[in-house]
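Task card 7
Instruction: Convert sequence to structure tokens.
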Amino acid sequence: MASVHENLSDDDIRAVFEAFGRVVSCSLVRDVSDPETHCGYGYIEFENPESMDEAVKAMDQYDLGGKMLRVCACAWGVNGVFQAMYSSQLVRASPKLG
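Output:
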């Protein structure tokens, strides 16, 4: 997910997304120069793919705290190519690192 409002916390995001199913993990990426601040994007892992699909459909372009949240499903594809799914549109991004 991206475009997360600066005043929202990991716990806030988890609480919103738990409406779609059990959240295994939820973390916003932190600013290395100020660990109390997140960078506006992060990752959510659901227990099952159906919950993920519902969350993507419902929450992509959702106004959360005054910002339009971007939510996509993502996975590592063949040949280590990262693939993200925004509202049924496949986007190819950078190769897998590490």
